[in-house]
# Entry
Amino acid sequence: MYLKRLELRGFKTFATYTDFLFDEGITAIVGPNGSGKSNIADAVRWVLGEQSYSVLRGKRTEDMIFAGTRRRPQMGMVEAIMTFDNTSHWLPIDFSEVTIGRRAYRSGENRYLINGSRVRLRDVVELLGKAGLGHHGLVTIGQGVADAALSLRPDERRVLFEEAA
Amino acid sequence: MYLKRLELRGFKTFATYTDFLFDEGITAIVGPNGSGKSNIADAVRWVLGEQSYSVLRGKRTEDMIFAGTRRRPQMGMVEAIMTFDNTSHWLPIDFSEVTIGRRAYRSGENRYLINGSRVRLRDVVELLGKAGLGHHGLVTIGQGVADAALSLRPDERRVLFEEAA
Amino acid sequence: MKEEFQSVFVIAAQEFSRYFETLFGGGQARLTLTDPDHPATTGVDIIARPPGKRQQSLALLSGGERALTATALLFAVLKARPLPFCLLDEVDAMLDEANVGRFRVLLEEFAKQTQFIVITHNRQTIEAADTIYGISMGEQGVSNVISLRLEGEKVSR
Amino acid sequence: MKEEFQSVFVIAAQEFSRYFETLFGGGQARLTLTDPDHPATTGVDIIARPPGKRQQSLALLSGGERALTATALLFAVLKARPLPFCLLDEVDAMLDEANVGRFRVLLEEFAKQTQFIVITHNRQTIEAADTIYGISMGEQGVSNVISLRLEGEKVSR
Ligand SMILES: Nc1ncnc2c1ncn2[C@@H]1O[C@H](COP(=O)(O)OP(=O)(O)OP(=O)(O)O)[C@@H](O)[C@H]1O
Ligand SMILES: Nc1ncnc2c1ncn2[C@@H]1O[C@H](COP(=O)(O)OP(=O)(O)OP(=O)(O)O)[C@@H](O)[C@H]1O
Ligand SMILES: [Mg+2]
Ligand SMILES: [Mg+2]
# Structure
């Protein structure tokens, strides 16, 4: 089971349609400060159902939508889709390829999709939960998170282990 | 006015007598992880009278004294001395060169010295205060402090300006 | 849930000690429970001693030593409860050349079981990758992407 | 004390906008008071817009953009209330090549008035130095020091 593809349209600085293809093994993402690398990490969390905007470095739905600049107008919606190779049946759903998608609008409305069909957030959470991708806090490990794990109090640090369980 | 010299003996990883000579302008300090670079920053804060051991990444006096390793015994005391060129009379004291020193013992006792004579902590604080070096929180800017300045709440951030004043 | 904590902890604790030694090229570390009699509420403590040094509180560790210790911990939890993929965002930023080298070896080992997407500025980490995506900021405040595969084939997107 | 805050703030605010543009090579930023009618208690807010981007909350800034903005702020306060010397510990760690270059230029300018001791791993920052101290960890857990002066004269201590 691995992530084959991440498609972004309107997610933060990824205004234009962007299609990342991934292989198994190691993929590196490089580039200057502020170019959009960590925004990719945010997109992954967002598609997987992240509900805390502070974790996504924002405050509300519209912070996830390309805000526009002097040279390019803002967008009205954002869409991101992750495609998983599921031949190992990690996701308990009878498809060898599974897409999980999320769309959001400036109104604040969020929509969730599995294999292109609209579902509820809880369906995404449930599917990922069964695959061990639900509460697993380590799917993306952000800038500064690693050191934070050391600064936590012992009772807070426990949560790392509980979330992975 | 500038820092001419920093002498360490027994300060954290600087077990053996170490003598840093500094010129005006820029001095770079380089080296691998854990070699002792930030310990030098701690020593500077410590000599200037720092009383918060958490700021010095420790808990008590003895954390400032070389703790020993399997190959070398711990030490019983630490001493650090900073020598300032004072020809511009930045420090309101009638010497063209001024040394500020601090010694501490495993007992927890701390001693303060100005030009080699024993003084009280308050004398050091007062002298530095008159020179604008008293509460100035920016004498050393540590790993992570810079970003923290952005994460502070507005009322906390105010302290940056008050401390420098 | 609490049974789960216990089983995750036991495996992670074992792996943490191993990964710490691998990443530091020596030294030793372990995880401990603050209240072993109460697994439902106990906290988790870390005891770490880099090679050639004496064991002291975590606070006294250097920036790079903390980053490396945290990496050992996160990999240990990942080993106890594997994920199909994991995205690392500049976890190697504070590491010197020697430590990045050991991090890279561990990452390559782990990558046999887990797909990694690694945001990095570090040459050694980049060298471990099969595919590289270069991100740049365009004039309109929009991210542009170029992909580079290991064979040197460059594709603009 | 509160008068002092006001005078420090006015100068720092002016310098902050200037240093931000210098370090980012463009864009704009300013400091604002949350409660200007009450200078004794007002907080200080930061509004920052990197070049080519739209102004958004500080939280949305990248790791490097935050480090650069914080550097502009700290230099601004230093300009308002100068110190004879200042020690910087890896403040350039998150910066890419272009940003380190601009940081270095500002540092060199500032160094005409202030002595700087800079702990760094960054080649460009090291190049700005007149003296370099190399610290290494010896076998006994003791720090060793080598100094290198710009003329290339190497002295072991
Ligand atoms: N909704 C949005 N619309 C447009 N731009 C946005 C939006 N949200 C965030 N940004 C911009 O994205 C940039 C941050 O991008 P990101 O954090 O991905 O950078 P990065 O490549 O990780 O850089 P670094 O190497 O410094 O960590 C900021 O400049 C921010 O203004
Ligand atoms: N009292 C002490 N006695 C002996 N060693 C100590 C003492 N206090 C701290 N240390 C050691 O000093 C080391 C940290 O040194 P320091 O923080 O200066 O490293 P650094 O060169 O800044 O590294 P980095 O590049 O990772 O930031 C730790 O390994 C710690 O164990
Ligand atoms: Mg980033
Ligand atoms: Mg350090």
Observations:
- The radius of gyration of chain B is 16 Å.
- Chain B touches chain C at residues 12, 32-35, 37-38, 54, 57-59, 63, 67-71, 143-144 (CB under 8 Å).
